[in-house]
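Suppose you are handed only these lines of text.
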Amino acid sequence: MTSNHSTLKSGARLRQLLSADRPSVLLEAHDALSARIVEAEGLEGIWASSLTIAATHGLRDANELTWTQVLDVLEHMGEATALPILVDGDSGHGDFNTVRRFVRKLSRAGLAGVCFEDQRFPKENSLIRTEGTLASIPSFSGKIRAAKDAQQDEDFVVVARVEAFIAGLGLDEAMLRAEAYHSAGADAILIHSRRTDADEVLAFAREWACRSPLLIVPTTYASTPQAAYGAAGINAIIWANHTLRAAIHAMRGLCRGIKLSGAPSEAESPMAPLDDVFALTIHEELAEARRRYETISSTYARLPDSRSARPLARWP
Ligand code: SPV
Ligand code: MG
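From them, the structure of the protein bound to sulfopyruvate can be written out as follows.
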């Protein structure tokens, strides 16, 4: 991270990540707590995944949550972390008009950017979808233009995600689409693939030749050496579902242990100490605020400069 990281607004920080001299890493988070953990552990940016936000509600990644329900989660995430959050905006939750309303709210709420994919509405998760039809190039380009026109923060980033490879189409179609979305104003392109090797995305990156920042989601080709990406001109790698998968695994281990022995076993399934829960929700700030506001003397409250007292740390 660069030294002026904390003074820039989130969109500008995401732009920095997308123009760094090595690929940046965005890690998935699905709620405020996971966003805080990602920040506390020193990661540089967040992917707010539609798959994992839906899953934490027990729902499918098929627009079963409405866009306002997703927005509620995103607002909590945005308040909880100073990291730039790239929102997974699916295919826009409707037509260009829904895109505009969504982008207006996201950019006002301080989210760093949004990624829209050229599927039709309702979308299906790209790693399991079977149907090959994509949105038409003009209709999706219109959504990208609408998003750019609606953003309330000039640094807000709009990423266009090309699903041509997912739909079984080739490099030519992927390039045609990326070109169109770039011309419509997309700040960056995400090229998605579900192959178990990186051949498709590397071929695309060669052809794209750094026309704009390029992002990838290597879920199915996670074992590709990272060095290949920087050399190919890829700017960001999104680990799109991994905090939720780690949490599911840990929770299952705990459940099985309690089922077998009747009590949690730290040795069998290590857990964060309870103090971590209080620390991650910044309980100490509340104690400090209590001291400041509940014991305030009537004399101090009347002082004209009481408003200029040192601000409290960020609260949850
Ligand atoms: C997500 O994390 O929701 C994504 C990536 O969009 S994928 O699941 O590969 O479609
Ligand atoms: Mg998604």
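What can we learn from it? The pocket of magnesium ion (ligand 2) is lined by residues 49-51, 61, 88, 90 (CB under 6 Å). The chain has 13 helices and eight strands.
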